[in-house]
Amino acid sequence: METGEEHKSPPYMIVFVVLAVLTVAEVLFALLFTGLPKFWMGVGLIFMAVWKAVLVAMYYMHLRFEPKRLWILAASPIPLAIILVVVVIREF
Amino acid sequence: MSTTEKDIASAVDAGGQHDHHEIPWIRKYVFATDHKMIAKQFMFVSLFFLVVGGALAGMMRFQLGFPGQPMPGAGILPDAMMAPTPNGAIMLPEFYNSLVTMHGTIMIFFAIMPLLVGLFGNLLIPLQIGAEDMAFPRLNMASFWLAVPAGMLMLASFAVEGGAAGAGWTSYAPLSTSGEWTGVYLGQQLWLVSLTILGFSSLIGAVNYITTVINLRAPGMTWFRIPLATWSLFVTAVLILLAIPILAGALIMLLFDQTIGTGFFRPEVGGEPLLWQHLFWFFGHPEVYILILPAMGITSEVLSNRARKPIFGYHSMVLALISIGFLGWIVWGHHMFQSGMNPLLGTSFMISTMAIAVPSAIKTFNWLGTLWKADIHFDVPMLHALSFVSMFIIGGLSGIFMASTPVDIYIHDTYFIVAHLHYVLFGGSLFAIFAGITYWFPKMFGRMMNEPLGKVHFVLTFIFYNLVFFPMHNLGLQGMMRRIYDFTQYDFLQPLQPMNQFITLFAFALITTQLLFVFNFFWSIFKGEKAGNNPWKSNTLEWTVPSPPPHGNFAEMPTVFRGPYEYSSPESDDDFLPQTTPPREGPGPSSGVPEPTPTPEGAEA
Amino acid sequence: MTTITADRAPMAGMKVYHLKLGMWVFLLSEVMFFTGLIGSYVILRFAHPEAFGVPGEVLNVPLTAFNTFVLICSSVTMVKAFAAIEQNDQEGLQKWLLATILLGAFFVGVQAWEYTLLASEGFVPMAESYHAIARGAAEGSEVIGGPLYGATFYTMTGFHGAHVSIGVFCLCFTLYRARKGAYTAGNLGGVEIMGLYWHFVDLVWILLFTIVYLI
């Protein structure tokens, strides 16, 4: 959102490069390191995916440049999503 | 800062779609964007569905009161519903299943929810926060015009082959996944499609309410000066926003199971029926609070006004609303204690469910505190609000029975549950709806509802309601299961026949009594006593504008200086202080009460 | 009668304008919608690990990785369109919007092609006719996973694809309005909320790709 005299345009291209590199890294990680325990494989992949998702939200969706209260609003469904999945998984 | 100016410019452009010309008839009454007209549209449509739902309940009660006997006048119904015999038409079990399902669905999704959220949300939110309309008036119109086809689809499903959906309003899998089990194919799919459309309608309504409450408050209308009705509708909108999509996802998966043959919830191909229950109740329990929170807000408003006292503990009321709204997300498993769930989960759900009693009790005691030593005016809205409080206590206490897993084993899926849910939904929500309609009727139509007629309606409804639903606790404890077509097939239930007949007779009386309300409603629209701007001497902003309010509501931007419930304040010569009254100069005579600080730009807080 | 719109600070409360706040609020419900779908997949997979395949066995990971890259590119072009209109660069706005539309449509096209490839290998959502075999394996080889695999896969990616398709239609409308000069540096709400939706759809795909294809 912030542009013009006071702020440079956010580093859109740098974010793009990071996203592309992370995608390649994810694919290689998943296809090459098949010997890793499933758990650590999952943790590593989820970590990279969440990293990418946060980058998109922060820079492309401009959350970084928004008021704090919008952050809180945007994050509000995440606990509910975690509650749903974590609780129901305990059933099985 | 340049950004701010840009934002303002685009926002003004986005919101500047008010036309000041004569509005064509079709835009004013049919495809209306004015929030008050949309509220009225929701009211008429959902009152119609309330009648439909009541008729379905009447037919069910006939079957339970007189099992297997021909129903008078039922010969006009098609043979697929009523089997013709020489003595008259007898209800078929499949049709009874449809009645149970559709009564629940229609009452919850097409009557109570649109009355509370569609009617009061649209009517009250902009008026109470001092806005000219909703943030997105055209989305608001879309919300109504999506709800109408959804309702039509739901009704149309009675006419298709196989009849309407018959797997209960909860549509538990695998009963609902295939027509083999219920004999209902297309009806069940129409049910799913209709609810998905209605869900989308509620969703865009919720987006509108949330944006409006956050962004369109008048200067000085800080969060803790918002009237409780609007507060409750705001929390409700958040629940709708986050719960309905889960339902939509589950409905779509179930629809796929039925139509293209996926296996999400079909155990015969490796699916998980339990997943449906979890998804449904993850939506379903917030839905329960969607149905009760606005009723609580309406009650708070009416109680405080008609008791002429500030609401007891305004802040704790708001915090209780918010905490009920949050706790509603972690208790859904208490609907599933009998599903064979993980005992660890069962115990945690039991504890979290009982925790909800705390904010609910806070609200109840605050209402009682409001009534304590008050100058109570027993007019029709107040009578309904008082019965809301008392019935909600009964319904809440019977809820504690179900919340504890050991007791629930015994009463699960019996008429005890039926009694409980009707105590909170009819005794709670519907009484609050009556309170709300009679209270805001003058604002909607510029006329008062007839008082003596309203009182007769109230007294009869209250008596008949309790005679119908209280004995159901007893039926349940004696083991009569819910959704049963003919309980006399069990020897141990046969002694319950007289009590069922008793309930049925009073259910008919209860339904007949509602004609009084219908008559009063329409008569008062045309012939009621003219009401001024503020017939109840209320403080909130909607009573500062003409009745009915003009397009755009406020001739000039109201500025809010105080909270909504300053009744009988020593600061005023009259017994009320509208929110727009500026504070007096110098120290007022009310030394004990801290003066609210005037912060016209407080809307930022 | 005058309305009071003009007297109001239009960004009271959340300090963002109505359209943007409305879009964010709507996106919250989208989060919950995809939580329902993806969460069901995670739960079902946890409950029945044998009903799902390992990465690359049935699904074509390289093709989808390329498609993921396409969608990320479309996010960049979208944000470039927004940056252009911030500078009141009408030509840039239209150029980048068009690029976004093409990339988005390409993504949907590749996804449709992928669906036909998978279906030809017996990877279908219908439980009764599910008989997925490993990629490149001969007809009649061992069936991998179970009906839940096909059902969850097509539901999740299908609804994501539907979101992309809706996004492409909305982008076409945005482009149409942009060509009529509807947006300026002072009035870019329409472009910004379009971008929010588009980036959200991209964000969902990033998570979906990892959870469905790689884990």
Q: Can you put this structure into words, describing what you see?
A:
The complex is a heterotrimer of chains A (92), B (605) and C (215). Chain A is an all-alpha fold and 92 residues long. Helix content of chain A is 71%, strand content 0%. The longest helix of chain A is centred in the middle third of the chain and has 23 residues, at 38-60. Chain A is flat, with a radius of gyration of 17 Å. Chain C has one domain: Cytochrome c oxidase, subunit III, four-helix bundle (Four Helix Bundle (Hemerythrin (Met), subunit A)). Chain C is built from five helices and no strands. Chain C has helices spanning 18-47, 61-86, 90-120, 147-179, 189-214. In chain C, helix 1 (18-47) runs antiparallel to helix 4, helix 2 runs antiparallel to helix 5 (189-214) and helix 4 (147-179) runs antiparallel to helix 5. The model of chain C has no long low-confidence stretch (mean pLDDT 88). Classes of the chains: A mainly alpha (92), B mainly alpha (605), C mainly alpha (215). Chains B and C meet through helix 1, helix 7, helix 8 and helix 9 of B and helix 1 and helix 4 of C.
Just name the CATH architecture of chain C: Up-down Bundle
Largest sheet of chain C: none
Share in helix of chain C: 55-70%
The structural domain count of chain B equals 1
| Helix content class of chain B | 55-70%
Q: Got a strand count of chain C?
A: 0
CATH class of chain B: Mainly Alpha
- Whole-Å distance between the termini of chain C? 62 Å
Strand content of chain B: under 5%
Q: Which overall shape of chain C is indicated by the principal axes computed on the Cα atoms?
A: elongated
List keywords for this structure.
heterotrimer; B: 605 residues; mainly alpha; Cytochrome C Oxidase, Chain A; 16 helices; C: 215 residues; Four Helix Bundle (Hemerythrin (Met), subunit A); 5 helices; 68% helix; 0% strand
Topology (SSEs and partners):
The complex is a heterotrimer of chains A (92), B (605) and C (215).
Chain A: H1 12-32, H2 38-60, H3 68-75, H4 77-89
Helix pairs in contact in A: 1-2
Chain B: H1 2-15, H2 25-30, H3 35-65, E1 82-85, E2 88-91, H4 93-129, H5 137-156, H6 179-182, H7 186-215, H8 228-259, H9 273-306, H10 314-327, H11 343-371, H12 380-403, H13 405-411, H14 415-445, H15 451-477, H16 497-527
Antiparallel strand pairs in B: 1-2
Helix pairs in contact in B: 3-4, 3-5, 3-16, 4-5, 4-7, 4-8, 4-9, 4-14, 5-7, 7-8, 8-9, 8-10, 9-11, 9-12, 9-14, 10-11, 11-12, 12-14, 12-15, 14-15, 15-16
Chain C: H1 18-47, H2 61-86, H3 90-120, H4 147-179, H5 189-214
Helix pairs in contact in C: 1-4, 1-5, 2-3, 2-5, 3-4, 4-5
